[in-house]
Amino acid sequence: MARAVSTQRKWTVTIAAWLVALLIFFPILWTILTAFKSEGEAIAFPPHLIPTWTLENFFEVQSRSDYFRHFFNSVVISVGSTLLCLLVAVPAAWSMAFSPTKRTKDILMWMLSTKMMPAVGVLVPIYLIFKSLNLLDNLFGLTVILALIDLPIVIWMLYTYFKEIPVDILEACRMDGAVLWKEIVYVLLPMAVPGIASTMLLNIILAWNEAFWTLNLTAANAAPLTAFIASYSSPEGLFWAKLSAASTLAIAPILLLGWFSQRQLVRGLTFGAVK
Amino acid sequence: MGSIALENVTKSFGNHTVIPPINLEIEDGSFVVFVGPSGCGKSTLLRLIAGLEDTTTGVIKLDGVDMTDSIPAKRQLSMVFQSYALYPHMTVFNNIAFPLKMANVDKATIDQKVRDAARVLNLTDYLERRPRALSGGQRQRVAIGRAIVRQPKAFLFDEPLSNLDAALRVNMRLEISELHQQLKTTMIYVTHDQVEAMTMADKIVVLNAGHIEHYGTPMELYRTPANRFVAGFIGSPKMNFIDGADAAKFGANSIGVRPEHFRVSRTEGTWQGRVQVAEHLGSDTFMYVNVDGLGLMTVRAEGEEVINPGDTVYLSPDPARVYRFDKAGVSIPTN
Questions:
Q1: Is A181 within 8 Å of chain B by CB?
Q2: Helices (H) and strands (E) in chain B, counts
Q3: Which domain holds residue B164?
Q4: Which of A205, B23, B208, B261 falls between 20 and 30 A from A220, CA-CA?
Q5: Whether residue B38 sits in one domain with residue B187
Q6: Cβ-based neighbour number of residue A74 at 10 Å
Q7: Within an 8 Å CB–CB cutoff, is residue A16 touching chain B?
């Protein structure tokens, strides 16, 4: 009897989980399906679930706005900002995790609090700074700003991972004759590889999807895929099928990256949650 | 060479002084054990010598050279940690080779030295394994291998056997003692276990609240403890203490009698008591005797002695082995 109830409960939970997953995934699925429809089919009512499978929208999108250039910009900005972020965040997190002061927690909280500020609040000063430094519509400028924006989260994540590394091991390393940089390169980083990998993945995804700064600080040269999608929303009206094709092309790389690294990502996000 | 000298060394964390001014000379090649209760500052003292903690004041000299401000890497000391502190991402070979790599030793020499150390420590078959695939004893041997391979000036052991089970602890104790006899390198060993201290040390430093209570050979500490604290800490089972009128008869404020220094009789003796618990270990019998007016006394008797709980016994201290202490707990010398 107890086993029957348990099996029934398991089925209910499984079905509920699938329904919720489908509900969350549905907009993405619908976008992908619409990308393969003609414009007429895309706005038809009642909607057609199965498209006629045309690739016309993809060809038109590519010929109109050069997908690969935007893709290249997105890769440069997301990977570049992540590497730049790690360059600053690894020593910062090391210092906070292993040489904390009385104010370390306060500094960490302060860094996190900057994430709570609406980005639009600093748009004008940053825009003006970028303008005067000639960094508007510039890949380097965008890489730096995205690195700075995600720096608090990256430091927090690395700090959490580093706190899990026993101090004894680092002390043993010092006793074995390692100076600071050798301690970080030979012991700390290899031991923190899973954490650093999750942090990198998350930061690449965040930077890839970032739309506020990429739309406001770029025009044509440095425009990444977010700007590519936005260019299909025009005052003359929406071309749903083309917009969907553009969106599908924009999200496909990051969706694939997320899919293949989901185990690493989940581990990263829940790391340290339980002992 | 590996002599170590501490001159007026102190350590404070904020307003809290953990180590009040300490002076200590450790001779080259000796095996010195720091022993004391939890929180007495023994590990802090070891970490000060290692350079893992900065001294608040004072000077630490290694072979006569002031190393107070040197980083651990420059002190040429090796340390074995309680938690083993092996590098989990490296094989046993690479763990042992790590200090040599840091010293930029060439590959052929590293290979030779690691294999020599592995042979001494019976680790040859495990060189390609990761630490997680080893038992506790093997891990501790890898930690020791990592320490011996670069021939340091001195070895520092921070409670290295605490994580091992009782049987393994005895084996490792022997191995470390043998290692000391082979290498003849200075060793400083921190433990809270006075049996480890007594069995391994050339000299013991008994610490209490950061103070050195006594520094001497194990038998000096056993025979002529500096004070009541040392007398109570050294020896197993612990010394029995008697205060008041019974102590005054010996011309002291309090006296101490070790469990093995009582004469036990069924018919007559100084103090009468009732056996509360009797532990028969075969080689010895430990009795916990409730003596009227004195409380519970621990007594060590012959293993063959037939004694049962509830029995009445008479205890008489061996007059030549009664330890006398003044009001401050300092030993009163025997005339």
A1: no
A2: 9, 18
A3: 4-230
A4: A205
A5: yes
A6: 25
A7: no
ipTM: 0.84
Residue B88 with chain A: CB contacts under 8 Å: 169, 191
Burial category of B231 from C-beta neighbours within 10 Å (exposed 0-12, middle 13-18, buried 19 and up): buried
Query: What's the pLDDT at A275?
Result: 35
Instruction: Determine, for residues B72 and A175 on separate chains, whether the beta-carbon distance falls below 8 Å.
Output: yes
Taking Cα atoms as reference points, which of A127, A149, A152 lies closest to residue A216? A127
How many beta-carbon pairs under 8 angstroms link A with B?
Answer: 62
Q: Does B71 touch chain A (CB under 8 A)?
A: yes
Q: Please name the residues between 37 and 56 in chain B that touch chain A, using a CB distance below 8 Å.
A: 50-52
* Residue type at position A26: F
Q: Which residue intervals of B6-131 are DSSP H helices?
A: 42-50, 92-102, 107-120
In terms of Cα–Cα distance, which of A46, A60, A20, A9 is closest to A241?
A: A60
Residues of A within 8 A of B150 (CB-CB) are 176-177
Which chain B residues contact residue A171 at CB under 8 A? 52, 72, 79, 81, 85
Whichever domain contains A87, its CATH number is 1.10.3720.10
**Domain count for chain B:** 2
Strand B240-243 versus strand B323-325 pairing type: unpaired
Q: Is residue B333 part of a domain?
A: no
